[in-house]
Amino acid sequence: MSDISVLNLFFGIALFLFGMNLMSDHLKKISGSGAEVLLYRLTDKPLKSLLIGTGITALIQSSSAVSAMVVSLTESRIMKLKQAIPVIIGTILGTSATGWIIAYSSITFHSANILKIFSASVLSAVFAITGIVLKLFIKKQQIKRLGEIFLGFAVLMLGIHTITEAVEPLKNNTVFVTSVSSFQNPLLLFIFGILLSALLQSASASVGILQTLSLSGLISLNTAVYLLLGIGIGASVPVIIASAGKSADAKRVSLIYLLCNTIGAVVIGAIYLILSYIIGLNNAQIILNSLQITTLNTVYRVLIVLILMPFTSVLEHISRGMIKEKKKLIVGKI
Q1: Is residue 71 over pLDDT 60?
Q2: pTM value?
Q3: Which of 86, 126, 206, 315 is the most exposed place for a label (fewest CB within 10 A)?
Q4: Using CA of residue 300, residue 301, residue 303, residue 304, what is the dihedral sign?
Q5: Packing angle of the helix pair 81-94, 290-308 (nearest 10 deg)
Q6: What does the alpha-carbon distance between residue 17 and residue 101 come to, in Å, rounded to a whole number?
Q7: Residue 95 CA, distance from chain mean position
Q8: Domain extents for the chain?
Q9: What is the pLDDT of residue 132?
Q10: Which residues on neighbouring strands pair with residue 220, listed in sequence order?
Q11: pLDDT of residue 334
Q12: DSSP designation for 119
């Protein structure tokens, strides 16, 4: 891989992350405090809480941001810990929404000319032009922010295209393909997924980079599974940071987010390991494309929801056991 290709790879990653952050920041500004009020009012029942957590995370495109919001609401005692748990579980599912946008960008339309209108390159151009017009020529602040969101989407798509072009030569590089294929140690892949997600502070961004690399046929089923297991846990880091110095309940929320991702990774990872040895998947080189990776990621997160939703009270009990209330020191008069 030449120096220029490496530079283009990091340039593409930079564009991808900038575009995602731009979209996320302005979506949060548009939702504003209204999102927090909505989050509180619609979390009186577990199923509603789950759907709200999923929906707002899909909108903001950051489970960490929504979880940090829940930490804030719990800290201010607007939301009870019992209400917060289903929302937290919902954020784990909601963060998979970005993957479907990225997967769509990898689809190539060959059949009808009318379908080419909806290709990623055309849509990116439309979003970029529309975004800059809204930002420069509309005075209303909310509309300007909508323009910023459109521009963010266009930059994100440009980043994906740049990464794809940079890694394209690698699929014909025998040494690289052999190295990637031989790197199948589940523990190392798992740890790398944690580090990647913790570094980027975004599960969506980490999965997005994984999807983009898959466009050149470099990601196998085993590689994707173990990376995805680690990515979920790594995304807990910014939530834990957000709870630093907060009340016991706020810290419990961040702990529950970490527990949900860890339990999901351990349970589903163990099931996959057993099945892979029984069926022989550990020796098979099944290459996944972008759509298959986002489907795998979504299925994984749906399974986490199904596994954990019946045990919200257990999660609450565990968190209270692990994080105790600080005892108030009462000083009497002498």
Answers
A1: yes
A2: 0.70
A3: 126
A4: positive
A5: 160
A6: 14
A7: 4
A8: 3-110+164-320
A9: 92
A10: 287
A11: 47
A12: S
pLDDT at 329: 47
Would you call 329 helix, strand, or coil by DSSP? coil
Max Cα-Cα span within the chain: 89
Give the DSSP per-residue string, 146-203. Answer: HHHHHHHHHHHHHHHHHHHHHHGGGGG-HHHHHHHHH---HHHHHHHHHHHHHHHT-H
- Mean of the per-residue pLDDT values of the chain: 77
Neighbours of 296 (CB within 10 A): 18
CB atoms within 10 A of CB 156: 28
> Which residue did the predictor score with more confidence, 113 or 207?
207
pLDDT score of 306 more than 70:
yes
Which tokens in the block code for residue 177?
């393909």
pLDDT above 60: residue 73: yes
C-alpha span between 142 and 206 (Å, rounded): 29
- Which of the residue ranges 73-82, 163-172, 284-293 would you say has the lowest mean pLDDT? 163-172
Helix 63-75 / helix 81-94 crossing angle, nearest 10 deg: 170
Average of per-residue pLDDT across 4-10: 74
Question: Backbone phi, then psi, for 287, in 5-degree steps?
Answer: -85, 130
> b/e for 105-117, b at 16 or more Cβ within 10 A?
bbeeeeeeeeeee
